[in-house]
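Repro:
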Amino acid sequence: MIRAALVDRVIQPADLLAEVATPRSGATALFIGTVRETNDGRAVTAIDYASYVAMAEGELERIAREAGEKFGVDFLVVEHRVGMLQLMETSVAIAASHAHRGPAMDCTRWVIEEIKTRVPIWKREHYADGSRDWVDPAPRSEKVAP
């Protein structure tokens, strides 16, 4: 069972864990991305996630299927939220289960990195000073210099 979706509701990590629970699995890994209070030294109050829905959902599904094949994971659920999120709210959750911990953990890490580089989801941070800016979702350490 592999599922990936964009959602406009609160993500419930426990529900994702329940979806991937199976007697075949000896390990379940869960990644949860949340809205944090600072970015690049600026105080963040909220993030607005926007996407090209049809393309984003298709790419999320492709990533999930690729991850299943790459890591031998048959039970994987990915949800990414769109809309306005406040501090500490979950923006993305990935649950994977496998007979062994390594593939489950490696799968969740790979999926989040692929989401950051491949899925057309954009985030606009809202700052404590009242300003807002669109930001690059790729981690700074992985950005390619010009």
